[in-house]
Amino acid sequence: MGKKIIYQLNHQNNLQYAENKRVRTSQNTTKFPYHHKDLWCHQPSDDMEKTKLKHISLYEFFSKFPNEESARKYFELKRWNGHVRCPHCGRHNITECKDQKPMPYRCKDCRKFFSVRFGTILEESKLPLHRWLMCMYLLATSRKGISSIQISKELGITQKSAWFLCHRIREVWMKDKKEKLDGIVEVDETFIGGKESNKHFSKKLNKGRGSVGKLIVIGAKQRNGKVIVKHINDTSAYNLQGFIGKHVDKNSNVFTDEFKSYKGLTGFVHEFVNHSGKQYVNGNVHTNSIESFWSLLKRGYYGVYHYMSPKHLKRYIHEFAYRHNTFKVEILDFIGDTITKMVGKRIMYCDLVN
Questions:
Q1: Do 317 and 173 meet the contact criterion of CB atoms below 8 Å apart?
Q2: Helix or strand or coil: residue 218?
Q3: Which member of 49, 90, 99, 253 has the greatest number of CB atoms within 10 A?
């Protein structure tokens, strides 16, 4: 008899618990209208669908540019927008040469021959335009970069040609106009290079460890925005605060770590987190965004390039910055923007190796 009463009491308690849970759930539906299972199958809104970028696969890319002629027309479209203009005199009185020899076009006014390569970084390049487009696609879609050896295998050219090709494209990306950052800006510095303990005895500097022998890069990232990077010689207050003053709008919120060279920063709302005291977030103050960019750069350094010389470091870091700043741009628009910036840019092989 006692067991039956206890069973009935437990059954009533379970029913009451289930009823209370149902009431609480129904009350919370106004604040959280979707069931937890519905969240996984919830369809995105029209605004989300509009902002979603269309990825161009390698197959689609080859379908759009199957041969050299299609690549040439694309370069001409992006440079002249359908109206061919003489790069020598700037006039439109143009005639097309038969069989495109010695060049595709000839100006009737100045009587000079020219092609879409003239006056750009493509000038005097013997590589087909089709391979130039393919290299731009590979650099644009490789989030952590791609080595010149891999480029040479994909394009069927030598490593020397692939290395020169990639650096010319990186030189174009450095032409990108750098607008000042505003709002909340995170600033931090990082060190690029191998460990002193791993170096050969003849190459060791014997000046300690840590940052000894490494290259210094400073970066500023606008919260949920663009990033600006620069190679500097040292971490003095003159270099760090000078970089901030040049690339960040006055009265912006500048978040850094506790490094002593940031102390005394004027003209900005400066706040910092104490990393040495294991403080990484203090309310809205943190440098996690710029640290995330550094981690991506380091993955490219350790896993892809393995070595960045002081002479070419600026091109490598600007490659990662440019790719980060244009991640919302579709691939074909990205390539088209690169082509438009090629005009007036020229770099010789001897300038890179000497």
A1: no
A2: strand
A3: 253
What pLDDT sits at residue 240? 95
For residue 276, what are its two tokens? 């040495």
Q: Long-range contacts: 94-97, Cβ < 8 Å, 24+? A: none
**How many Å apart are CA 42 and CA 34, to the nearest integer?**
9
Backbone φ, ψ for residue 40 (5° rounding): -75, -25
DSSP code at position 42: P
Question: At a CB cut-off of 8 Å and minimum separation 6, what does 271 contact?
Answer: 253, 254, 255, 256, 282, 285
> How far is Cα 149 from Cα 89, in angstroms, rounded to an integer?
40
Q: How many other CB atoms are found less than 10 A from the CB of residue 58?
A: 12
CA pair distance 80, 65, nearest whole angstrom: 19
Q: Which residues contact 259 (CB under 8 A, 6 or more apart)?
A: 189, 235, 240
Distance CA 41, CA 322 (A): 35
Question: DSSP 3-state assignment of 343?
Answer: strand
For residue 271, list its beta bridge partners: 255
The pLDDT tens digits of the residues spanning 223-253 come to: 999 999 999 999 999 999 999 999 999 999 9
- Containing H/E element for 222? strand 215-222
In sequence order, what are the beta bridge partners of 134?
none
Query: The tokens of 309 are what?
Result: 């010389």
Q: Provide the 8-state DSSP code for 213.
A: T
Q: Which residue has the tokens 């080595």?
A: 147
φ, ψ at 219 (rounded to 5°): -140, 150
Residue 102: asked if its preceding bond is cis (omega within 30°), the reply is yes
Tens digit of each residue's pLDDT (9 = 90 or more) over 138-167: 999 999 999 999 999 999 999 999 999 999
Residue 221 · residue 252 · CB < 8 Å: no
Rg (CA), the chain: 29
DSSP structural state of residue 118: T
Average pLDDT, the chain: 84
Q: Provide the percentage of residues in the chain whose pLDDT is more than 70.
A: 84
Task: Output the pLDDT for position 10.
Answer: 53
User: C-alpha 292: how far from its chain's center?
Assistant: 12
